[in-house]
Amino acid sequence: MSFSTFSLSKLALVAAAFVSQVTATTVRIDVSTDGDAGPTRLVFTPNTTTAAVGDVLEYHYHGATHSVAMSDFDSPCNPAKTGGFFSGVFSTVAEENPNVFRVTVNSTDPIFYYCTVAGHCQAGMAGVVNPTSDQTLVAYKANAKSTTSSAPAGVFGGEVVAAGADSGSSSSSTPSSSTTSAPSASGAGSATTTSSAPSATETEKKNGAATLTASLVTILGAIGAAVLMA
Ligand SMILES: *[C@@H]1O[C@H](CO)[C@@H](O)[C@H](O)[C@H]1NC(C)=O
Ligand SMILES: *[C@@H]1O[C@H](CO)[C@@H](O)[C@H](O)[C@H]1NC(C)=O
Ligand SMILES: [Cu+2]
Question: Which of 33, 90, 139, 210 could bridge 62 with an S-S bond, Cβ 3.0-4.6 Å?
Answer without folding.
Answer: 33
